[in-house]
Specification:
With about 450 residues, the chain is of the alpha+beta class. The protein has helices at about 1-25, 130-135, 145, 215-220, 260-275, 280-290, 305-310, 400-405, 420-425, 430-435, and strands spanning about 30-40, 40-45, 50, 55-60, 65-70, 75-80, 85-90, 95-100, 110-115, 115-120, 125-130, 155-160, 165-170, 185, 190, 205-210, 225-230, 240-250, 315-325, 330-340, 350-365, 365-380, 440-455.
Length: about 450
């Protein structure tokens, strides 16, 4: 009897051990799952089907069907561009029918169009937009510069090198030879002549209307495109937000023009005198001596006028402080920005202070009152390399720094800037030309806007 009991115990123990050894294989057992993926009743090919937490996956065929081997407790993840991702627990199912829906989160984004707003899904015109988060990362002086290279089909160029140089914006290129080709600028719903005095740190979004649909909204003024700017407003969560941003930078001239060395300059003067009158080169000998003595100028170090005029290291400083807060009924935004630039050109600098105050009150659900105050004070020193307000380039200071004599020759050039017309023409000492045309400007702009919206 004891032998029989011991035999039964041994048999049960062996069965338990065998069961434990086989369990991993049972747990690791896989099975095949098939299914079809559709969207609005149509088969959806190219959908990625993966087993969650693994690299096991497949793709639906042209009929939206798929086949995949998964473990017993698998969850399948379905992803497709433009569709909301879905997760389906397989459980005991062997055939799945998955219906995917479009991801409309991006189509719900609101874009400013004309004097109102519209959803991206409803747009039919050519519109490009830049957000404020991208703009605040760009250390630039003016709003127009922030658009450089960021908007397709929009050309942004500087007119010249003065601190207050105007920035030309061309949405569809130049359409007129004699008329203004600038686009129409709208800031918070109000047309303005220039956006140079708007602080980049105070901008929420910039939207550019590029095609003919802008003409239908704004009339002939929008024929060259429309640039819509929205500034930042207050918050509505009942909290006060204080932000301070600062940056600094340096500027150096990228490239200078090659000019003649002193000895080559003297040779050129000799050739010029020979071209004028081969029998009388007194105009050369009176200042430079005989041609046989030209070796005296070898190795001389002349004035590098380009370095003296444009060789400075420019410095840029920008600081802005903003305070924003409020509730759904009343919110406010106060922003102060100061921009300082010491330009690379001699005696050129630029300082601008901007103050913006925005108040919004919503006494009822159907009435909203807005109040905006903008103040800008700009101080400008220097006239730049060219006269941007003149059609002719005769007053260009750049030509003096390139063509003026590198040598101080008695009778030809002196501290009194005595010049000989035959040799120097209308050239002037570059430093004197810079200071003679040095300009001081102080520009103050203040605007007050009140808006009352009601139904």
């Amino acid at each position: 009897m004891n032998r029989i009991v011991r035999s039964v115990k041994l048999t049960i123990a062996s069965a338990v051990v065998l069961l434990l050894l086989c369990t991993p294989d049972l747990l690791a057992q896989t099975r095949t799952v098939t299914g079809t993926v559709t969207s609005e009743g149509e088969a959806l090919p190219g959908v990625t089907v993966t087993e969650k937490g693994t690299s096991n996956g497949t793709v639906t065929d042209s009929d939206g069907k798929f086949t995949i081997s998964v473990s017993g407790s698998a969850t399948l993840v379905f992803t497709f561009v433009g569709m909301t991702p879905q997760e389906v627990a397989v459980g005991s199912q062997t055939n799945l029918a998955v219906e995917m829906v479009a991801d409309i989160s991006q189509l719900e984004e609101v874009v400013i169009v004309g004097y109102g707003t519209a959803k991206k899904a409803d747009l039919t015109g050519s519109i490009v937009s830049v957000g404020g988060d991208d703009l605040k990362k760009m250390p630039v002086a003016t709003v127009a510069e922030t658009l450089t290279g960021r908007l397709a089909g929009v050309q942004v160029t500087s007119t010249e090198g003065s601190p207050d140089a105007e920035i030309n914006i061309r949405v569809r290129g130049g359409t007129s030879i004699s008329q203004d080709n600038n686009p129409l600028y709208i800031v918070d719903g109000f047309p303005v002549n220039s956006i140079s005095d708007v602080s980049p740190s105070d901008i929420e979004t910039i939207t550019v209307l590029k095609d003919a649909s802008s003409t239908a909204i704004y009339g002939s003024r929008g024929a060259n495109g429309v640039v819509l700017i929205t500034t930042k407003g207050g918050t509505t969560d009942g909290k006060v937000s204080v932000n301070f941003n600062t940056f600094t930078g340096f500027k150096r001239i990228a490239k200078t023009l090659d000019v003649l060395a002193p000895q080559d300059y003297v040779k050129w003067q000799y050739e010029y005198a020979m071209m004028r009158d081969e029998d009388d080169i007194s105009s050369f000998e009176n200042f430079f001596g005989t041609f046989q003595d030209i070796d005296l100028y070898a190795g001389l170090r002349g004035n590098n006028w380009q370095s003296q005029i444009y060789g400075h290291t420019g410095k840029v400083f920008n600081n802005d402080l903003s305070v924003r807060g409020g509730t759904e009924k009343f919110n406010y935004s106060i922003n102060y920005a100061r921009f300082q630039e010491d330009a690379i050109m001699l005696a050129s600098d630029y300082t601008r202070d901007n103050i913006t105050v925005r108040l919004n009150n919503k006494p009822t659900d159907k009435v909203e009152i807005g109040f905006t105050l903008r103040y800008s004070n700009t101080e400008i020193n220097g006239g730049g390399a060219n006269e941007q307000n003149e059609v002719s380039s005769a007053d260009s200071r750049l030509k003096h720094s390139v063509s003026y004599s590198p040598l101080s020759i008695p009778g030809l050039v002196s501290d009194a800037d005595d010049t000989n017309e035959q040799l120097v023409g209308d050239l002037t000492n570059p430093i004197r030309a810079t200071y003679d045309n040095n300009r001081y400007q102080e520009r103050t702009i203040s605007t007050l806007e009140e808006v009352l919206d009601g139904l």
